[in-house]
Amino acid sequence: MAAQPAPEVSPPGHHHFYYYYRALSSDNVKGLLLALSSSAFIGASFIIKKKGLKKAGESGLAAGNGGYSYLYEPLWWAGMIAMILGEAANFAAYAFAPAILVTPLGAVSIIISATLAHMILQERLHIFGMLGCVLCIVGSTTIVLHAPQERAIGSVTEVWDLATEPGFLCYALIVTALALVLIFYFVPRYGQTHILVYVGVCSLVGSLTVMSVRALGIALKLTFSGVNQLVYLQTWVFAVIVATCVVTQINYLNKALDTFNTAVVSPIYYVMFTSLTIVASVIMFKDWAGQNATQIVTEMCGFVTILSGTFLLHKTKDMVDTAGFLPIVSNGTTKHADKEDGFALEEMPLSFHDSCHNQV
User: Fold this and answer.
1) DSSP element (H, E) containing 101
2) Is the pLDDT of residue 223 over 80?
3) pLDDT digit string (tens) for 21-49?
4) What is the pLDDT of residues 116-149, one digit of tens each?
5) How far apart are CA 338 and CA 324, in angstroms?
6) Among 251, 266, 264, residue whose Cα is nearest residue 336
7) Mean predicted lDDT score pLDDT of the chain
């Protein structure tokens, strides 16, 4: 009998890399690339729009003073197109990869905005701001290497079955009830004085938005691949939910940004929105079902690292841009005099729906 060849043995220390490489399925890779391209477009769009605002203000009334001359500025429209492309890429990313991978990567747009502002707008990036960028990169890399694979779904009805399971139904009912209580009881009484009221509505509704966006994205992906999902009522139900939730988010996010300091609103919203989105995705899509405790803890450590980088970036932004700003009181209710040379400052994009509100 001929001798059997010896089994191939991986070189020592290489099996972990091979495991992580295999963990990134083709769908995860597509979702990752789409999420990164989305961050690139959105991050760059804020800088392009601000350049357009400045250029428009030189020949007309500045936007910060109530002018609309920027509507005639091609550079501003280029920024808007970049933002639309970024949102489209982010929408598509949810069709390929789990929310626990896509949503935290929204922090990459902060790095891009901060870097481009430093290079193009000559807005000095503090050394601790650079450290914040590094922390965001490290945290994002950690999540990418340990993200769960996207589960195979062959029909929008399968997503509907996941959405109507008792666990997620309970979550959706609790979130809806809390959002309604905030809207009808707390907003009229405490909306102008407590930042968590407006941000809470945005974050709660946002978690449902992302789940519906994923469902709608999966339906469209299957439709474009030749399996028509538009004939199912569930597809249109998810579309209505997306539209309703997005409008609600934009409304209350604008209220929060108009009432409170952007540097306070943005990180708080990012933390709450991303945390609730991950919880919703874990419940509905069972993202952690095939992962062990080590992987889950590592993902959470990556998320906390991103949060640390985000807060550090915003804190040092206040440290650097002190001229012309009012101090922030301890409860965060004092708003910046958000003007720079007569132009409204653009807030840093932080997540999928952070940049959905109407900015100029």
Assistant:
1) helix 99-102
2) yes
3) 445 678 889 999 999 999 999 888 888 88
4) 888 887 777 778 888 988 998 899 999 988 888 7
5) 8
6) 264
7) 80
**Cβ within 8 Å of residue 117, ≥6 positions away:** 47, 123, 125
Residue 135's identity, in one-letter code, is L
What local confidence, expressed as pLDDT, does residue 69 receive?
Answer: 74
Which residue in 302, 257, 261 sits closest to 107, CA to CA? 302
User: What whole-number distance in Å separates Cα of residue 9 and Cα of residue 213?
Assistant: 43
Query: pLDDT tens-digit profile of 80-123?
Result: 899 899 989 999 999 998 998 998 988 888 788 878 888 887 77
Amino acid identity for residue 167 in this structure? G
104 and 302 Cβ atoms separated by less than 8 Å = yes
d(CA 159, CA 236): 13
On whether the CB atoms of residues 275 and 103 are closer than 8 A, the answer is: no
The candidate with the shortest Cα–Cα distance to 263, out of 211, 209, 338, is 338
Query: For residues 303 and 124, is the Cβ–Cβ distance under 8 A?
Result: no
User: By the 8 A CB rule, do 197 and 180 touch?
Assistant: no
What phi and psi, each to the nearest 5 degrees, are found at residue 7?
A: -65, 145
pTM: 0.74
Q: What is the pLDDT of residue 261?
A: 73
Q: Find the Cα–Cα–Cα–Cα dihedral 123, 125, 129, 133, rounded to 10°.
A: 90
Tokens linked to 228: 């028509």
Q: Are 279 and 175 in contact (CB under 8 A)?
A: no
Strands, E assignment, the chain = 339-340, 343-344
